[in-house]
Write a structure and sequence with these properties.
Keywords: ATP-binding, Nucleotide-binding, Transport
Order of helices and strands: EEEHEEHEHHHEHEHEE
Strand order of the largest sheet: 6-7-8-3-9-10
Protein name: Putative ABC transport system ATP-binding protein
Radius of gyration: 17 Å
CATH class: Alpha Beta
GO molecular function: ATP binding; ATP hydrolysis activity; transmembrane transporter activity
Pfam families: ABC_tran
Structural class: alpha/beta
């Protein structure tokens, strides 16, 4: 079966500091892959290259029949609004917008009417148990509530691939596992593949498969969580 998303020979440096050293990875339809390893090993850089947020210095990133590493920023941004979803550790909700407005944002950017975008946003807030916060701004929410809203926003366009960068890292253990379980249930129902960056072995255990990084390269021993976890 042809992978949904694949990268070969990814190299990325920040100035003189290498972050990725020839990484290969493949993601299948509906697969949950945990990218693990100690702090500074290149996990977030890999995720950002796969999602088209960053361009690799060398190597290729293919999504279906597209070489996204060579596409324009506008094309990659559109891809993240339609085919990809991105979820960060701290949610990164827009503080001036309500929960419903935050969740509706990808749809509005895609040309939806405000009325229809809000209707769908409310449905997604309901899936994560925070519909009552529809007209509340992030500053008046708990961390868990904010992250549930961020999860709803990342899935509202029903992406084929969700990139989640330490999505529970800012939450306590119980809340983090609840949010992750909810995210995975919904993603499984709609067949979304998930690339999950984590340094936490408990979170990685939810995955179908683990790709361990060490010093910017795939660790063939699979022991990427062994240091700095």
């Amino acid at each position: 079966m042809t992978p949904l998303l694949q990268a070969h020979g990814l190299v990325k440096s920040y100035g003189q500091t290498p972050a990725l050293r020839g990484v290969d990875i493949e993601i299948g339809e509906g697969e949950l892959v945990a990218v693990t390893g100690p702090s500074g090993c290149g996990k977030s850089t890999l995720l950002h290259c796969l999602a088209g947020i960053l361009r690799a210095d060398a190597g290729s990133v293919r999504y279906r029949d597209r070489e996204i590493g060579t596409e324009s920023e506008a094309a990659r941004a559109k891809l993240r609004r339609t085919e990809f979803g991105v979820l960060f550790q701290f949610g990164q909700l827009v503080p001036e917008l309500t929960a419903a407005e935050n969740v509706a944002l990808p749809l509005l950017l895609g040309g939806w009417t405000r009325r229809e975008a809000r209707r769908v946003a409310l449905l997604w807030l309901g899936r994560f148990g925070v519909e009552e916060l529809a007209d509340v701004r992030p500053g008046a929410m708990s961390g868990g509530q904010q992250q549930r809203c961020a999860v709803a926003r990342s899935l509202v366009s029903e992406p084929r691939v969700l990139f989640a960068d330490e999505p529970t890292g800012a939450l306590d253990v119980l809340t983090g596992e609840q949010v992750l379980t909810e995210l995975m249930q919904v993603a499984r129902l709609q067949g979304t593949a998930i690339v999950l960056v984590t340094h936490d072995a408990r979170i990685a255990a939810y995955a179908d498969r683990e790709v361990a990084l060490r010093d910017g390269a795939v660790d063939p021993t699979g022991l990427g969580l062994g240091i700095g976890s």
